[in-house]
Specification:
The complex is a heterodimer of chains A (about 220) and B (about 130). Chain A is an all-alpha fold. Chain A has helices spanning about 40-65, 75, 80-105, 110-140, 150-180, 185-215; strands at about 5, 15. Chain A folds into two domains: about 1-35, no CATH class; about 40-215, Up-down Bundle (Four Helix Bundle (Hemerythrin (Met), subunit A)), CATH 1.20.120.80. Chain A has six helices and two strands. In chain A, strand 1 (about 5) and strand 2 (about 15) form a beta hairpin. Chain B is an all-alpha fold. Chain B has three domains: about 1-40, no CATH class; about 40-95; about 95-125. The longest helix of chain B is centred in the C-terminal third of the chain and has 27 residues, at about 100-125. Classes of the chains: A mainly alpha (about 220), B mainly alpha (about 130). The interface between A and B is large, with 67 and 60 residues.
Chain lengths: ~220, ~130
């Protein structure tokens, strides 16, 4: 047997690396030069590049956080208990996401769909909180162009909110595809990839919550 | 890489049941053992609770904790711990190929360097 083949079961069915027959082959190696899943490697590369995007946005905010002249500043606006509650919701959505991945690995499709739906709902709750927060700030007089502080704040948290919204769309699409049986290939890996994206969104919020909301300006 | 190793890894039912993501090809025994340590559902719940407690400590620190640099250092340390727990356990970096860690950490280091360069530019080179 060459290096490019493996034995999958006791029935000695030989499957080449990365062979895609529409079935799950959890634990099987991929037919790539690295032996790693290209999809997963691409996702990690994407997340690495996202670090730069958010690094730039966070850096800009940190530089401009005190540039509001006599306009409204962070100390007059932040509602820490409310933001803490929405942060907790997003943190718990990471738990439900990892439960979805765990159930996908066990091929329990019903529970996978359930946890994915709960994750999407928690994400929507977080997003609703962010929209409410933006509305309150705007009514108090903090527009997008009010000051350098407001522009950098809305840009940073807005970009994060868009990422959450994209994640919710992906989660709900995945649930729909699983329900209709339209998801082909390695289902566990697909759930895991969306899970990686979702956890990254959570990780970015962990940084934003501390640097933007908790550390005094 | 021998085909024997490959066969051993993929035919062991325990290995395929608990080996986590296990997408990254035939694994060495040490790495295989490491993957067996991937958290169970119960451990995921404990990790999430731990993260929630850290968040509560962060919030409490801003209300009743120390002021000044000590508060900032405490908050940054707690943030880094939460960050690491999510990427290592929820995102499985601890149990996956080191290449995934490498590509992510490169992006992270560049982001931190970017922040340093921006700070230096605006704080030191602007009159």
């Amino acid at each position: 047997m060459s290096d490019a083949t493996i034995t999958e079961t006791d029935d000695a069915v030989e499957i080449p690396h990365g062979y895609d027959d529409g079935q799950d082959h959890i634990g099987l190696p991929h037919h790539t030069s690295t032996g790693l899943s290209n999809t997963k490697l691409a996702m990690w590369l994407f997340l690495g590049s996202e670090c730069l995007l958010f690094g730039g946005l966070i850096s800009t905010y940190m530089l401009y956080r005190n540039r509001q002249a006599d306009q409204l500043g962070p100390d007059q606006l932040w509602d820490i208990p409310f933001t803490s509650a929405t942060s907790f919701v997003l943190l718990m959505s990471s738990l439900t996401m990892v439960m979805a991945v765990s159930n996908a690995k066990r091929k329990d499709e019903q529970r996978t769909k359930l946890w994915l739906t709960v994750t999407a709902l928690l994400g929507a709750l977080f997003l609703a909180g962010q929209v409410y927060e933006f509305t309150v700030f705007y009514r108090e007089g903090l527009g997008y162009t009010t000051s350098l502080f407001s522009s950098s704040f809305y840009t940073l948290t807005g970009f994060h909110g868009v990422h959450v919204a994209v994640g919710i769309v992906m989660l709900l699409s995945l649930v729909a595809m699983l329900a209709k049986g339209k998801l082909v290939g390695d289902k566990h890996e697909t759930v895991e990839m969306i899970g990686l994206y979702w956890h990254f969104v959570d990780v970015v919020w962990i940084v934003i919550f501390t640097l933007v909301y908790l550390i005094p300006a | 890489m021998s085909s024997d190793t490959t066969t051993d890894t993929t035919t062991d039912p325990a290995a395929t049941a608990d080996s986590g993501d296990a997408h990254d090809g035939p694994v060495a025994p040490a790495e295989h053992e490491q993957r067996h340590k991937e958290p169970t559902d119960r451990q995921y719940i404990f990790i999430a609770l731990f993260l929630a407690v850290l968040t509560a400590i962060e919030i409490a620190a801003t209300e009743v904790g120390p002021d000044g640099p000590l508060l900032i250092v405490s908050l940054v340390v707690l943030m880094v711990v939460k960050f690491l727990f999510v990427i290592l356990f929820f995102m499985h970096l601890r149990f996956d190929s080191r290449l995934f860690s490498l590509v992510f950490y490169i992006g992270l280091v560049f982001a931190i360097v970017l922040y340093g360069v921006m700070l230096a530019t605006f704080h030191f080179f602007v009159s």
